[in-house]
Amino acid sequence: MFKKFSNEEVKDKSKIKSSQQRAIRQAIQDQYPSLDPYFENVMPKKSEIQLAKCEGKINLVMIDGEPVFYNVRDGPYYPTLRVHHQYPFMMPTMRVDKGAIKFVLSGANIMCPGLTHKNVVEELANKPVDNNTPVAILAEGKEHALAIGHTQMSSQDIIQVNKGIGVNVVHHLNDGLWKTPKLD
Amino acid sequence: MPRRVRKKDSSDEENGSDEEVAQVAGKMEDANLDSRYPLKVLYCGACSCPPEYCAWMGPKSGEVTPECKAWLLANAPELAAKYGYSTEQEGVAAAASGGDAKEAEPKVKELPGGKKVKEPAKEVWLSSKQRQKRKFVCTVRGLELFGIKLPDACKIFKKKFSTGAAVTETADNKEEIEIQGDVKDDLVSVIVKEFKIDIKDIFFVDGAGPKLTKIPAAEESGTMAVGGK
Known about the structure:
The complex is a heterodimer of chains A (184) and B (229). In chain A, 26% of the residues lie in helices and 29% in strands. By secondary structure, chain A is an alpha+beta fold. Chain A is globular and about 50 Å long. Chain B has 229 residues and is an alpha+beta fold. Chain B contains nine helices and six strands, in the order αααααββαββαββαα. Chain B has helices at 2-26, 66-75, 77-82, 87-113, 115-118, 150-161, 184-195, 217-220, 222-227; strands at residues 124-132, 135-141, 165-169, 175-180, 202-206, 213-216. In chain B, strand 3 and strand 4 (175-180) form a beta hairpin. Chain B is elongated and about 65 Å long. In chain B, 21% of the residues are buried. At the A-B interface, helix 2 and helix 3 of A face helix 1 of B. Chain B: This is SUI1 domain-containing protein.
């Protein structure tokens, strides 16, 4: 989604109404309940939220010019990887095998065999994830996420079908959004 | 009630945060305290990603670039040790890369810098850049290598595309022609016809520096170039 993304893709950047700010805050809070205790740190109440509307109906939620969350149309909010690195517990994670890293970092979606690789399948089995959920993608033996996506199949299906796209990647390390830590 | 609890949490966190963070920076894995969040994640100064992914950021996947290694060794020796970048290795790598660089750099520099070397590799580079939404400019580089006067070429482009075109100076003190509008594809046929330049010598160029990609125009739009204006 952010494969090519830069300041130029931003169509309109504006401060938004406080009512809308509240709505966005609420939506994100509802979506990531485990983030609750730290919510003040992630999105301080005093700071103003800016919304950047980008190519492809992407909305970037920014605080002090730093993209923090984003969504497409009215879809779920995803955190940027920098935020996820700070609060890795905020959303379910999935692990891919080492061989997949290269492809994920060039923007590929996560294929089922990468998730069911013998080195990582245990984690998949132990941490069931539903279909259509935002997840963070970790790599075998790594502690930080390398991509954010949402599942196309439940973890059970992934194990059973073991074919095709398991997780749709929306944001990955070193993509356009990663390279724009600050928008101006 | 819940609000109060939350407040308490955050205040606790604030109290402990400084020391905790300091500790956390050292050993991120085993601390299980709440106040370790937000995690202070170290990002490589050379490639901007967490150091554990440095290996995938270079041109060759699976190989950590010397820059990343050097940075990590300088800034987080513990982590560097964990990933097995020893100073010795680094020294060797640096020496090797330094040597390489010293040997390779003049070579490389000869290429773009000295026209003598570049002239045998006569190439025309075309690229287009988006300025605002749907507005583009195309740049043509390297025409002068074929003995073409840029102002003349400029005039021809102006007429052919009926748009503005100008000779501009690039950052590296060379001259290139800038044409308004996205005319990249038609450009090929015009250059071939007007200047009698072989299509093999024309490339579409994207990006800059190490990430530069070159696509031979003949492959990209063979039909267009032949069947064009």
